[in-house]
Design brief:
The protein is built from 4 helices and 6 strands. It has about 140 residues and is of the alpha+beta class. It has a single domain, classed as Aminopeptidase. The chain is globular, with a radius of gyration of 15 Å. The model has no long low-confidence stretch (mean pLDDT about 90).
Length: about 140
Amino acid sequence: MRLEALQTEPAMFRTSTPAEATLTDADWKERVQHPRAVFVLLENNIPIGMTSILLVDDDVAYLGQSYIKKEFRGKGLAALLYKARMAWAHNLQLKKLTISHRQSNLISKAANQRLGFIYIHSETMNWLDGTVEDVLYYELEL
């Protein structure tokens, strides 16, 4: 699902080192274990979306790597991905969540703003589609 997201929506994801397309199955298995949790949306047992949360330390986690297949967008499913990550964070009694998005990704901005995330800073980033644009960072006190 992650590779599909990177291939179909390269404008929404940052470049990574090493490139995710070169990761082995063992690398992927390692990436979905603690301190990260991965949540998948299913329709009839077929993955249609995914997201993750990564512990930064004992008090803070980063929400990222969200993707919903195009034909399932606009149906409120992103709220389910947020709900799953928020429940995970509350279960661990975290104190803060952080999240980011490409400056031009107004849909992601609207989603995190609905939950009360507050802008904290930006930085220039190289994107998978070969462009350079700021990434905006937000945080939410729990």
